[in-house]
Structure formats: C-alpha cells, structure tokens
Amino acid sequence: MSYIKAEGLSKQYGSGDATVLAIHNMDFTVEAGEFVSIMGESGAGKSTLLSIVGAMNPPSSGKFVVDGIDVYRLGSEKRTDFRREFIGFVFQSFHLVPYLTVVENVMLPLTTVKMSKKKKRVLAEEALDQVGLAGKEDRLPSQISGGEKERVAIARAVVNDPPVILADEPTGNLDSSTTREIMGLLQRLNREGTTILMVTHSQDCAAYAERILQVSDGRLIGKDES
Amino acid sequence: MNLRDIAFKNLLRRKAKALFVLAGLAIGVSTVVALISFVDAMTENINHKLEKYGANILIVPKTENLSLTYGGLSLGGVSFEMQEIREQDLTKIKSIKNAANVAGLGPMVFGVVNVDDHKVLLAGIDFKANWILKPWWKIDGTIPGEKGVVLGSETAAVLGLNQGSPVTIKGRQLIVSGVLKPTGSQDDQLIFMPLETAQTVLNKEGLVSMAEVAALCKDCPIEAMVKQISDVVPGAKVMAIQQVVKSRMEALAQFKKFSYGVSIVVVLVGSLVVLVTMMGSVRERTEEIGIFRAIGFRKSHVFGIVLLEAGFISAAAGIIGYIAGFAVTKGAIHFFSESGGASIHPNLELIGGSFVLAVLVGLMASVYPAYLASRMDPNQALNAI
Q1: Is B375 in CB contact (< 8 Å) with chain A?
Q2: Where is the ABC transporter domain (chain A) (predicted)?
C-alpha cells in the first residue's frame, strides 16, 4: 500500500459562473522515501495541490490518505496535530519569524510538544548542524543570508523528524551555487528516508527528484518522468 | 522555547504597540487607584475632622413632655428630677455588634447645687472620655482629682473663683483645679467634677443623667448603632445627631458615586485602547500566525499566545498603574488638604485589586483579537504555501 495516496482530488473556488477549477480529478501515489517533484506553469494548480497535500486546504471532492490516515476526515485540530507530526514545511519565502533567533525558529515545531527546553534546544542545534549552520544559532533572520535562511527553514522542517517534507520552490530566491547546496541537502534528507514532495519551476531542481508529477490546467499530465 | 517565550519576544519586538497598550491600561488603572485612594483618604480625613466635633449619639432617659437643650442641640427630653440611667447598663454598649466603632463613651450626671448662695448646675463627667467627646475643651489648670472641680468660665466669673480657690459644695471642701476656657456653650455655666465624686455628692451612686457617644461610622450606618445601643440600654432613649451624620454620609456617598462613574469610563476607554491595538497587532501578524498554524500550533495555542501577551502587558500596567495612582493621590492630597490632615498609605487590597483589574480588563479586551487570530486559516494566511 502506498504511503501517500490521492484519489479523485478536485478543488474548485467560487460558484456559478465564477467557478474556477484549480485541481481536477487527480489520482497519484507516493511511496515512503520517495523524492517527487511537482512541476507546471504558474496557475497550473501546483500550489493548490501542495496545500491539499499539506493538510491545510480541504479538497472539494476526493480522498487524500497518508500512512493510512484519511487526512480530511480528521477534525480541524486533529489535522493540525497531523501537520505537526507528519509534515515538515519548507516555504518559498522562508517564512521565518523575524523576532526569533535562528535556533528559536528551528525549535518552533517543538513549542507545543511536551519536552524540556534543554532537549528542544539540543534537537534544534542538531538540525542546524545537519544543514551546516552550527555556530549561527543565536543570530536573527535579518543577520543571515538568503541561502542560510533556506537552511534554517529546512532545519525547522526536519527538527521533529517528520516522515514527509513539502517544499514550495525552495530555491526560488537563491543563486545557482546556493541552489545546488540546498538541493543536495534535500537529496541527503531523502536518502536518509524522508519522503519529499517539492514544487518547482526549475528543470535542474526537478532533476534531483526520482519522479516528476507534471501539472497543467489542474490536471496531472505526466506521472513518471524521472 | 514555549508559548510564553514567543509572547514575550513578540512584545519586545513590537515595543511601540506594547507601550501603547501598557500606557492605556496603566492610565486607566492609575485613575481608578487615584480616585479610590483619594476618596478613602478624604473620607478618613473628614471622619477625623468630624470626630473633633465630638459626640454624634446621645443617650438620655426616656421622658415625656420635657425638653431641654444642651450644647445648642435638641436632646429631646432630659429631666434632672426624674429617673436616671443605670451606669452599669452603659457597659453593655461595649458588647454591641459595632462596638469597635465606638470611639468614646461619656456618661454624665447632673444636679443642682448651691455655691455661695448661687444655684449652679453640677456635672459629673469622665474627664478621660471627655477629651474624645469634646476635643475643643481647654482648661486653665489641671484635670481635677477626687477633691477638685473645674469651673465653666462664666461660673468662675460669677462666683469670683480662680484656679486654686477653695470651694464648698454640699459641705465638702474642694479645690478649683482649673477653669474651662470659654466654649460658647452651656458648659461655660457648669461646675465639673469626676463622675464618681459627683454621684456621691448628688446621692446618685451608680446612676447617670445622660451619656454621649462618639461613633466612627465610616463603614457602619449610624442608625444601626442607635438601634444596637437602644437594645442594650432599654430604659434610655438613644438619638443620633442626624444632621452631622447624614450630611457627612451623603457627601461621601455622592463623591464615591462620582469616582466610580469616572473610573468605569476610564477603564472602558483603556479596554478600547487594548482592543484596537491588539486587533491591529493580530492583523499585522497574519503571516506569522499562518506559520504557527501550518507547523502545528492549535487554535488554542495561537489564542494563548495573544492572551499571554495581553497578560504580560496588563500585569505590568497593574503594577505601574498602582504606583502612578498612589503618587498622583499623594500629590492631590497635598494640594487639596491644606491642613495636612489627610494621608495615604499603601493598601494591600488596592494593590491586589488594581493588579486584578488590569489583568482582567487586558485579557477581556484581548479575547476577541485572540479569537480572530486563532481562527486564521493557515492556507489563506500564507497565501498558499
């Protein structure tokens, strides 16, 4: 049985004549430990798809199952818990909290977990070490570079060891050298067993994935480009 | 790292907004503290001053169709020739419910005596209690002992006696220990001696003609005390000097009402400041709240962060508000109380009350912004990941 399974996913916004079908009848599966890229032009429905996969945007119809859990049958708060336990987010614009230090940003997913402050700090430092940011724990986001911010975002995504990482254009704001470093980092995490779904415009980045889901006009048009 | 840390760090980051909320609440709290402290201090001061006017409850024998005035006040009926009050009945006043409010009890016995062919009214009094009941008394000389008397100023003039003069009353050789300075009251025409001595001289052992009570009624209704005294001294008629007491209470009650009204308005304005500022703060933090919700903060966690921030500011506002209110009251008292009679002291109840008030107002005004924050859709907040 597949680790992630989408059946007949559709998402429409608005009603009547103003209805927009962002996602139309999508079926796909992702195995545990897979690295999958989602590609498509702007407005193709990639971000909507990723938000549905991220348990933040209920589909208009269809079913979405992760590890045997029918995600959208969970109540709102249970879905929040699901996000915390199963998914690490790497946002396009980093989305770091500006008034928290690097290490505090990384500790955020552990905030509501019952664990000593010391233990949280140790886990966050380990995650930062993993992304090559040891020694920059106490800096503020405004005091580090774009590439470092992306690394902090990745460290925050992996600090509580979620089985799935969702990345939205993780290198969209980075230069080519930093892009290679970040993609290498994601690839390493994938090799260590983390399932990764990544939205990207870049063919070069998509090439790091094992499989590409091509989205166009809200439909999947290619499933096995690797 | 916990919710408290996040709330605290956010406040440090948004210092201007935090200070604005703090100022709004602190001004509200300090106004309430200042008004309450001022009212309390002035009440205490007024009470203290009114105490100087002496007795405000009179205990006289039950009589019919007799009237006499004493000290310019209508006493209802006092007849020196009729039944008296038993002195031991007066001791029961110490056991009434509001006994703690009795500042002074002055039993008096009266009788007419002849001194050098003059008929004079002799009054036996408790000189110790008299200092509380008639603090305006000034005696040229000393308080009399067992064989001494104090003369009213007119009595001394009529009888031609001075301090140290011998005087014979009902065959007893006594010494004038002092002369009362003019009071403008009937006291100027009396001869005073210690109660026990007078009772013996007048053959009224264990009896008193009337008694005066100085009651401190800041927190008690004077009518209730009158009733309580009537119950324990059944043979007597107990009267409050209504004019003094009622006007005092009414003035204070009106001042208090006004203060509470102003306090409510100021607190409402303070809570509006908190509400509006917190709403603005929440709107500014849409992205941040979206991140929190996306990475697994429950609605209750977001709600908690906003309330914790409000709680921190409110607690600080409570402390600052009390200190500011206290300082303002001190200044106001100095300004308004020319005689310097009023004073203000730290009041634990008010300290606790102002803290609780600030926290309650701050939290209540932040409930709606916190609710809005907690209801934010992470997907919309982040404009889709």
Answers
A1: no
A2: 4-226
Report the candidate in B264, B248, B278, B237 with the shortest Cα–Cα distance to residue B373.
B278
The answer to whether B363 touches B311, Cβ cutoff 8 Å, is yes
Q: Could you tell me which chain A residue has the CA closest to the CA of B378?
A: A56
Domain A4-225 in CATH 3.40.630.30? The answer is no
The sign one gets for the Cα dihedral B283, B285, B286, B292 is: negative
Nearest to B294 among A56, A110, A121 (CB): A56
CB atoms A50 and B385 under 8 Å: yes
Please count the other Cβ atoms lying within 10 Å of the Cβ belonging to residue B225: 26
Per-residue pLDDT tens over the stretch A87-127: 998 887 888 999 899 999 999 999 988 889 899 999 999 99
- Chain B CB contacts of A11 under 8 Å are none
Cross-chain Cβ contact B294/A104 below 8 Å? no
Q: Token digits for A174?
A: 């980075």
Each residue's pLDDT tens digit, A159-182: 988 999 999 888 877 788 888 888
Q: Does the structure's ipTM exceed the value 0.90?
A: no
- The larger pLDDT score, comparing residue B243 to residue B237, is at B237
Closest alpha carbon to A132 in A151, A150, A117:
A151
CA distances to A99, B143, B163, B177 from B140, in Å: 79, 9, 8, 9
Structure tokens of B212?
């005066």
Cβ separation B10–A98 shorter than 8 A: no
Query: What are the tens digits of pLDDT across the range B13-51?
Result: 888 888 988 998 999 899 889 888 888 887 777 666 665
Q: Which residues of B touch A81 (CB under 8 A)?
A: 296, 298
Helix (H) or strand (E) segment spanning residue A6: strand A4-13
Residues 6+ apart with CB under 8 A from A153: A90, A91, A94, A95, A96, A170
Q: How far is A223 from chain B (nearest CA, A)?
A: 22
- Pick the residue from chain A with its C-alpha nearest to B295: A84
Strands laid side by side in the A35-40 sheet:
A87-90, A164-168, A195-200, A35-40, A211-216, A219-225
Task: Return d(Cα B255, Cα B42) in angstroms, integer.
Answer: 10
Interface contact B6, partner A, CB < 8 A: yes
CB atoms within 10 A of CB B130: 19
* Partner-chain contact B299 A80, CB within 8 Å: yes
Distance (Å) from the C-alpha of residue A157 to the closest C-alpha of chain B? Answer: 8
Q: Which helix (H) or strand (E) element contains residue B212?
A: strand B210-215
* Residue A80, CA distances (Å) to A171, B86, B319, B372 in order: 26, 83, 38, 17
Query: What count of residues does chain A have?
Result: 226
Angle between helices A146-158 and A176-191 (to 10 degrees): 10
